[in-house]
């Protein structure tokens, strides 16, 4: 009986998470490379290096912002096991910054990535409200910008309502609305000629 209890306790113990530590190279606003590991900061998404936010090169600034947060400090990343492309997701810190991903969101050069943890929704909302960093300009989510680089379906000039698909569902954006300029349309999405057409197809207005 004692052996059975001991075995049960052994298997109930949590497995220690993997970590990687060292002096990384900053690739962009959400990716760092160690000697043998490529780490994607979990739960957030920074602009791509070539991405613009209005007239601001926000992708370049995001990369510089992350480099400045790290400085010459050792970075330690707690890897969560998730993987995007060839990068392992992790929550990273230095002696001065307890959460580099969160600090990027606070600085206004990264968005909350709603599909993954940690949850930076509140931090991103505060940064947007205060127009910090990239939020001072028209800005597009990195995942939408990347999708738009593949192909944007053609549309009639009179059919200028954008039917976007995101983590929030199927949303339509009319010209002049808050998120219209920052929203791009890829091949899996569509344009509409009227609000009635969009709603009949299952799209809704932003909340």
Decide which structural class fits the backbone: alpha+beta
Order of helices and strands: HEEEEEHEEHEHHEEEH
Low-confidence stretches: 1-16
Helical content class = 25-40%
Specify the biggest β-sheet: 6 strands, mixed
Topology, number of strands? 11
Identify the strand order in the major beta sheet. 1-6-7-4-3-2
Spatial gap, N to C terminus: 58 Å
Helix count from the secondary structure assignment: 6
- Using only CA atoms, what is the Rg? 21 Å
Nearest-integer average pLDDT: 84
CATH C-level class of the largest domain: Mainly Beta
What is the approximate shape? elongated
**What is the subunit organization of this protein?**
single chain
Domain TNase-like: 26-137
Signal peptide: 1-17
InterPro entries: SNase_OB-fold_sf, Staphylococal_nuclease_OB-fold
GO molecular function, one term: endonuclease activity
Brief rundown of the structure:
By secondary structure, the chain is an alpha+beta fold.
How would you describe this protein?
The protein has six helices and eleven strands. By secondary structure, it is α+β, with helices and mostly antiparallel strands. 33% of the residues are buried. Mean pLDDT is 84; it is low at 1-16.
